[in-house]
Specification:
Strand content: under 5%
Order of helices and strands: HHHH
Number of strands: 0
Helix content: 55-70%
Radius of gyration: 20 Å
Number of helices: 4
Distance between the termini: 8 Å
């Protein structure tokens, strides 16, 4: 980890980024544990007592959406998306750099589009008062939650694209790509 920033604003930014990173990590862990526990209890209840947990499928569906969209900013932050580099060794470094920037910019545009469409979908679901079939839970809040986390991923992608474009070793860059620090580092 490099020397801390001497300006007070930079220190606040790093503290906020670390807090957000850790909060998302804790959320992902809690959701994964909840999914595992719910599935285990549902299967055990079904097998041992012929009494499954009512609405377990719908609850797991909500938890899965939360898990995926909570993990996306973390994976993006760490620059750990799956990539295949079959021909990378034969591509000149300047071309690899240009392709990296282009792919990052394209990813930013796609995720921004998903964010926009998910927000619209949440609004439509809220207006239509869409609910789940069994538990009758409203669906709009989960769509808004997914949109907000997708928006956070868009912001992270913008920062990572800027860091790749300028060649900076950003203090918010992920472990895998643009830098060596990450917000959760101690």
């Amino acid at each position: 980890m490099s020397a801390p920033s001497t300006d007070n604003g930079g220190a606040r930014d790093i503290l906020a980024a670390r807090w957000l990173y850790r909060a998302l990590t804790v959320l992902v862990a809690i959701v994964m544990f909840a999914m595992m526990s719910l599935t285990t209890l549902d299967v055990a209840g079904r097998a041992l007592f012929s009494r499954p947990i009512k609405g377990a499928f719908e609850i797991n569906t909500f938890l899965l959406a939360i898990l995926i969209f909570s993990s996306l900013p973390l994976i993006t932050w760490d620059d750990k998306h799956i990539s295949v580099s079959l021909f990378e060794q034969w591509i000149p470094a300047p071309v690899r750099w240009a392709l990296s920037v282009l792919l990052s910019a394209l990813s930013t545009a796609v995720v921004a589009g998903i964010t926009h469409r998910m927000w619209i979908q949440g609004r439509l679901m809220a207006e239509g008062q869409h609910i789940t079939g069994f538990l009758e839970w409203p669906i709009a809040p989960i769509a808004y939650f997914m949109s907000v986390l997708s928006g956070l991923t868009t912001v992270i992608l913008i920062v990572l694209t800027w860091h790749k474009l300028t060649g900076r070793q950003g203090r918010y860059a992920g472990r895998g790509g643009a830098g060596t620090e990450y917000p959760g580092a101690d």
